Amino acid sequence: MRVLLTFFVIALTFSQPAFAKGWEHLAERRVTYKEDTDRVNINWFNRDIHQIRLKSKQGIINMDSITLHFRDGSKQVTNDLGILLKGKTSRAITVPRHQSRNLRRVTFKYKSVGNQKTDIAGITKRGIVEIQAKRR
């Protein structure tokens, strides 16, 4: 019994970082092969966001910029996020503490790497990007 309890405590200790991540799914977008701009409106119950990041669920996505729009009309632009491969995430974009409850929408500029011919041939696939958020 004591060995089982020790094993259980050790298992919880090493699995703790997985629980501590706390990234929530906000939205999912399909990325075409041309440069595209999408926006995600933030609902009132999704406010109080601390950080935002993107995760590539399929395909290779070339991220251009993320713009955070606030209720008072101000913006925070982050450029050059790089290329996201399948299963990889972008760096976390931190929302200013005094603006976290005022976040109205998030705008993304990106494009998928490849073209329609390589999609049909099965070489590259259209990208699917997931927008994730972490609350305070």
Walk me through this protein's architecture.
It is globular and about 50 Å long. With 136 residues, the protein is an alpha+beta fold. The protein is built from two helices and eight strands; from the N terminus they run H-E-E-E-E-E-E-E-H-E. Strands 1-8-3-6 form a four-stranded antiparallel sheet, with no helix packed on it. Strands 2-7-4-5 form a four-stranded antiparallel sheet, with no helix packed on it. The longest helix has 19 residues, at 2-20. The chain is 18% helix and 48% strand.
Q: Residue share in helices? A: 10-25%
DSSP helical segment count: 2
The shape, in one word, is globular
Characterize the largest beta sheet: strand count, sense, and whether it forms a barrel: 4 strands, antiparallel
Strand order of the largest sheet: 1-8-3-6
Gyration radius from CA atoms, angstroms: 18 Å
Structural class by SSE content: alpha+beta
Q: For the record, give the distance between the C-alpha atoms at the N and C termini, rounded to a whole number.
A: 39 Å
How many β strands by DSSP? Answer: 8
**Topology as H/E string?**
HEEEEEEEHE
What's the structural blueprint in terms of helices and strands?
Layout: H1 2-20, E1 24-31, E2 36-41, E3 49-58, E4 61-70, E5 75-84, E6 93-94, E7 103-112, H2 116-121, E8 127-135
Antiparallel strand pairs: 1-8, 2-7, 3-6, 3-8, 4-5, 4-7
